[in-house]
TrEMBL record:
Pumilio repeats lie at residues 88-123, 164-199, 232-271, 305-346. One of its GO terms (molecular function) is mRNA binding. Its main location: cytoplasm. The keyword Cytoplasm applies. Pfam families: PUF (PF00806). InterPro entries: ARM-like, ARM-type_fold, PUM-HD, Pumilio_RNA-bd_rpt. Residues 28-370 form the PUM-HD domain. SUPFAM superfamilies: ARM repeat (SSF48371). This is Pumilio 12. PROSITE patterns: PUM, PUM_HD. It comes from Hibiscus trionum (Flower of an hour). Keywords: Cytoplasm, Repeat, RNA-binding, Translation regulation.
Length: 370
């Protein structure tokens, strides 16, 4: 590669912008780009502080002023400039993308170079080691990966990113930083590009749903998934709903699915949960799930189970269950007079037992509804 036409930084500024770009560029005026090349390849040097090997461009990129200066050079949109910078930073592209200041150069470089150099970057980041994963869980690298996803969204090279992320799907979904890279894919890319991530979500759904951080990511994933894979995932959750509903964290995935208000899926869930409503009402997370069922089309199934149970008095006197029964009374009064009357009759049988503890809440509400 011939850089003779580029010359020094100063001449770059003269050739491509006609002036100095900013005060910070003064310190780099006259620095020779070409002297460190041999047969078109950069020669790298160790930094004075003993850091990773570098050349002058890498050194600049790792400083605030230097990064700004290089960004201004790239803004010329001249391929000779972008290709020259690419050649000087390529060997340390991962270090660049996770650096506090270097990441800005990386993010601009990937939208400045051609497809061939983009492919070189992707191979560098994925073939020998999964740098995409390591950058995704890094506080600065995370931004670089998200920018990469946007830059490649219409390119076949996006498959490099998707494969790298899918290989570490569960680790990313349970990482407080990495999860946002997965969600960025769902927000930016189409369902076809994301298909491998959809498959991994179905494969890892059970474990993620039981993880205190994974369940949050899984709910966000469910809210974003598109296309036929959505129905597959929802039906898989239905198949496992009795287990998930009784799990302290998995319960929230069931709540998320019910909140989508898919009539067929919800009817299946409400049916499969029959026989568990009394038990769930007396669990912290479970009580929220049962209240959600009561507010939707599962109301009759829940109240019918209450009416037919000899455990209702324990639900009424429970710290969580009493709120469920209050919701049952309020919702049935608004929506179904017949089942409301049946629940009132059932509660009247044990009204004397509700003078103390949480039962008093039901007794008070009971009287106000009459």
């Amino acid at each position: 590669m011939d850089f003779s036409g580029i010359g020094s930084f100063g001449s770059c500024l003269d050739d491509f912008s006609g002036k100095y770009m900013s005060p910070c560029s003064c310190m780099y005026h006259g620095v020779d780009w070409s002297n460190d090349f041999s047969n078109g390849n950069p020669r790298f040097y160790a930094t004075s502080d003993g850091g990773y090997p570098s050349n002058i461009v890498i050194t600049m990129a790792m400083t605030e002023d230097g990064s700004k200066f290089l960004l201004e050079l790239l803004s010329s949109k001249d391929s000779r400039v972008s290709n020259l910078i690419f050649s000087r930073v390529f060997e340390f592209i991962f270090e660049l993308m996770i650096h506090q200041f270097g990441r800005y150069l990386f993010q601009q470089l990937i939208v400045s170079v051609d497809e061939i150099r983009l492919q070189m970057i992707m191979e560098k980041l994925t073939v020998a080691e999964n740098h995409i994963y390591h950058a995704s869980v890094h506080k600065y690298g995370n931004f670089s990966v998200k920018k990469l996803i946007t830059a490649l969204k219409r390119s076949p090279l996006i498959t490099y990113v998707i494969k790298a992320l899918s290989n570490k799907f569960e680790e990313l979904m349970t990482d407080p930083t990495g999860q946002y890279v997965i969600l960025e894919c769902l927000d930016v890319l189409d369902s076809r590009s994301n298909d491998l991530l959809y498959v991994r979500a179905m494969e890892g759904c059970l474990e993620l749903s039981r993880h205190v951080r994974g369940v949050v990511s899984m709910n966000a994933f469910i809210a974003r998934i598109k296309g036929p894979r959505l129905d597959q995932l929802l039906n898989w959750i239905c198949d496992n709903v009795r287990f998930l509903a009784q799990d302290p964290t998995g319960n929230y995935v069931v709540q998320c699915v019910i909140g989508l208000e898919n009539p067929a899926i919800n009817d299946r869930i409400f049916s499969l949960l029959e026989g568990l409503y009394v038990k769930l009402s007396m669990a912290k997370a479970g009580s929220h799930l049962v209240e959600q069922c009561l507010r939707l089309s599962g109301m009759k199934r829940v109240i019918s189970e209450f009416i037919g149970s000899d455990q209702l008095v324990f639900v009424v006197k429970d710290r969580y269950g009493n709120y469920v029964v209050q919701t049952a009374l309020k919702e049935s009064k608004k929506r179904d007079a017949r089942i409301h009357a049946s629940l009132i009759v059932k509660l009247e049988e044990r009204l004397d037992c509700l003078r103390h503890g949480y039962g008093r809440n039901i007794r008070t509400l009971f009287k106000s509804l009459q």
